[in-house]
Design goal:
The structure is a homodimer of 192-residue chains. Chain A contains ten helices and no strands. With 192 residues, chain A is mainly α. Chain A folds into two domains: 49 residues, Homeodomain-like (Arc Repressor Mutant, subunit A), CATH 1.10.10; 124 residues, Tetracycline Repressor, domain 2, CATH 1.10.357. Chains A, B: This is TetR family transcriptional regulator.
């Protein structure tokens, strides 16, 4: 998952939004950082929300499809599926931790844009919950509250971009370890 | 842990910061919401950062001391200590989820203030890590990476205020369930 090419506008916008948050950033900030005149910004993206959603689009593109693909790669084993999906959630950060770190600001968007990006997160949550429930049904996971545990797993994955700063090769190791932590959290016992 | 009494200034500030974030809020916003003149705000708190840190002070007050007390209540059993400390981290949200949800904006503060509040989080992380390592040393926890797992546990606890909106009695149940999820995550086996 390579870092996507961002236009100069979006590169400037990423710097501004990351530093000041969605609410604290003005179109003027972005114009200055991008070295692009304000009318050009308005022409391409309409307004500040348009610029922000264009960035989020890069951050969430294919996220759900990749999570489904990871699940299917896990074949019929809930424990492999869970580990693979958790890894896919983390590996997404490789597109750029700063870009993924913008996502909490989704709550500031207007309803149609908010819904669009929240559907991605809801979709991943539903996918993960299905795996947790299936593992529990088959007696592989001893988890007592699948809904709350799934939420906790997603939260712990979502927080990684806010502190992770190291290089990609090590990041793969972190992603795999998170797969193992997730398996513990659902009470998977290899010898169960 | 009762909701602390906030001054009218801080109540207005909480509304403003919660809605617009630290960077997006102006002293004028706070003045309007609090119904308090700007010179009065400056007199009591110096500037916007002063107002924000006064709120954080309420949110983090006694946090570390309560976490230590929870650990000590767990006696000599790492599994009880871990569950109690995780519960104490969650119960803190009862002072007001909106107040705790301001904490990610600590990164926008000037270094001395940032350090002061980050020391609280670092302290809780160190406390939790000590328990995880002790449980592992005694063969009670099978966790393979105590540092990363402790980080994941804290992250999952920290995210709760951002989605939890229900009433306090149910919140205690959530806190206890998080204690159980944490025990799973470190690979605790009651029959181990």
């Amino acid at each position: 998952m390579a870092q996507p090419e961002l236009s100069p506008i979006l590169r400037g916008a990423l710097d501004a939004f990351y530093e000041k948050g969605f609410r604290g950033t003005t179109v003027r900030d972005i114009s200055q950082r991008a070295g692009v005149a304000m009318p050009t910004l308005y022409y391409y993206h309409g307004n500040k929300e348009g610029i922000f959603t264009a960035l989020l689009e890069c951050a969430t593109k294919d996220f759900l499809a990749r999570a489904y693909a990871a699940r299917d790669e896990g074949g019929d084993k809930p424990e492999v599926r869970l580990a693979y999906v958790v890894e896919s959630i983390l590996l997404r950060t490789l597109i750029g931790p700063r870009m993924v770190a913008l996502e909490p600001d989704i709550r500031y968007l207007s309803a149609p844009n908010r819904d669009r990006f929240e559907r991605v997160r809801t979709g991943v949550e539903r996918l993960l919950l299905g795996i947790v429930r299936e593992g529990r049904r088959r007696g592989l996971f001893t988890v007592s509250d699948p809904v709350l545990t799934t939420r906790a797993l997603l939260d712990m994955c979502d927080a990684v971009p806010s502190w992770y700063v190291e290089c990609p090769p090590k990041y793969h190791a972190v992603a795999q370890k998170y797969g193992a932590i997730a398996l513990n959290a659902v009470g998977y016992r290899a010898d169960g």
